[in-house]
Amino acid sequence: MASNIDNNFDLEPDILSEVKDMKFGIVVSNWNKNITDNLFDGAYKTLVKYGVKEENIKKIEVPGSFELVHGCKIMQRNNVDAVIAIGCIIKGETDHYDYICSSVSSGITQLNIINDIPIVFCVLTDHNIDQSINRSGGKHGNKGAESAIAAIKIASI
Description:
This protein is α/β, with parallel strands linked by helices. 46% of the residues lie in helices and 22% in strands. Strands 2-1-3-4 form a four-stranded parallel sheet, with helices on both faces.
């Protein structure tokens, strides 16, 4: 299980001294809103915990995970140091899941390649709602919080 792996999510003291002046954008999908709200909450609280000023956290909501790519492209133009893309895609009975997962990951990858503002991928791609609950504040932690730490780290590079 990924939750048993130490992914070195501590922040070094030299990074912490830079955090107070950093600006972050968070783009949140409204699809599976109960899950994405939990992920946003984890990301937001973690950024603030490490010293990011509340006024330096910008949020854009988009209808679904597919629209995260466009929302992230807009957010990259908003004078931020890093963007966190938050979504939740749960497998259903059709191939729609595969197309959305592939399109979102590919789109965010392309934005990371062509633009200078990094995007952290916080899109759950789960097979059922229980997996999503477990990763958005349940027994596997909150991937939003982990993504916030990753965003601080990548913004400090």
